[in-house]
Amino acid sequence: MAFNLDMHCEMILDEYRQRQTTYEKLKNVVLETLTKTLHDNNMLVTAVEGRVKTEKSLTGKLELKGHKYRTIDDITDIVGTRIIAFFSDEVDTISAFVEKLFEVDWENSVDKRKMLAIDRFGYMSLHYVCRLPAAIYSDPSMPLLNQIRFELQMRTALQHVWANMQHDTGYKSQVEIPIEYQRSLNRLAGILELADEQFSRIRKEINDYRRNVQSLVASGNFDEVPLNGDTFRSYCELKPFNRLAEKIATINQAEVYEDNPMPYYKVLRALGMETIGDVQRMMNEYGEGAYQLALIQLAGTGLDIVASSVALQNLCIVMILKKGYGEAGLNRMFDSIYGQSDYNAQRASRIFGQAQRINLVN
User: How far is Cα 233 from Cα 214, in angstroms, rounded to an integer?
Assistant: First the structure.
């Protein structure tokens, strides 16, 4: 494709070629800085990406708009970076980090989320034009590194999907799109916008629910807390089974190492527990039986380390036996926790025999 550039644009293109190394360096430093900042602030995003505009792309831009630029420094998108977030409210959080990191050229920055016609989703994203402060990175051999402006786009994953679709079907095309296709695209845009809003709303409500659950668990109002994965995890953070685990460890003067109690959640649900209060009552009712069972299990073994989950496991064993589920019930519990194997049946048989000796079997 032949381009027709005047002398002014040719000079801009020559300067672009001379700055290639600086542009690449600027892009890499910006991406590294953004990635580290997001990681340090526990912000999970779908992508952090960047590019240096190709010579072909810049030449095409100069042919169309070269008269607008006095110097190459007026072209702010030669280095372009982008952060794609999952949720719309995260874009504002990320922009706050960006404003602390870089020097933002507010006159040339734009929030395209606020520039939409009422009937279109549009090209939604937050565009900042920035400079890299020397306080973050400087290189005496590249003084332009802290002078060249770069663009940073921040948008959600769904906004990114729409922007790419719009780019490929809209202004990039040389043919005007028929009205029926424009209407279809606008309907799709509305669906994407609604989905973006709903994802953020649902996430906020889930987070509010989890905070409320954590507050209820911390308050000790266990009968008001339904037993589910989130509430059981919050309950376990209080280390409710540690006292029994430490008591069991003293049988052999053993150490207790922390392991994950979450596999027992399904067992507790299968035993009919509906609230955290039910779990607490199980511990109060069957704690002594769990300890007596451990005395037989550990006698003569010489074990000097036990898992913290031994307390919860023995509590479940005693409850299974007291409810009359017998050896088959123990086998089902071990299959649930460890996965099905012949060894589970052997383990269930051995423990069932031990429990019979101390009258734990109904």
Answer: 9
What CA dihedral angle connects 291, 294, 300 and 306, to 10 degrees?
-110
Are 348 and 327 in contact by the 8 Å Cβ rule? The answer is yes
Q: What is the CA radius of gyration of the chain?
A: 32
Q: Could you give the percent of the chain with pLDDT greater than 70?
A: 91
User: How much is the pLDDT for 118?
Assistant: 41
| pTM as predicted | 0.62
Task: Compute the distance between CA of residue 67 and CA of residue 5 in angstroms, rounded to an integer.
Answer: 10
Nearest 5°: the CA angle 229, 347, 356 is 100
Could you tell me the CA-to-CA distances from 262 to 48, 51, 164, 210, 287 in Å, in that order? Answer: 34, 44, 42, 17, 19
CA distance 156 to 113: 11
CA 139-14-17 angle, to 5 degrees, is 45
Q: What is the pLDDT of residues 312-360, one digit of tens each?
A: 999 999 999 999 999 999 999 999 999 999 999 999 999 999 999 998 8
Domain boundaries, the chain: 7-160, 237-357
Per the CATH hierarchy, to which homologous superfamily does domain 7-160 belong?
A: Beta Polymerase, domain 2 (3.30.460.10)
| Sign of the torsion angle spanned by Cα atoms 91, 97, 101, 106 | positive
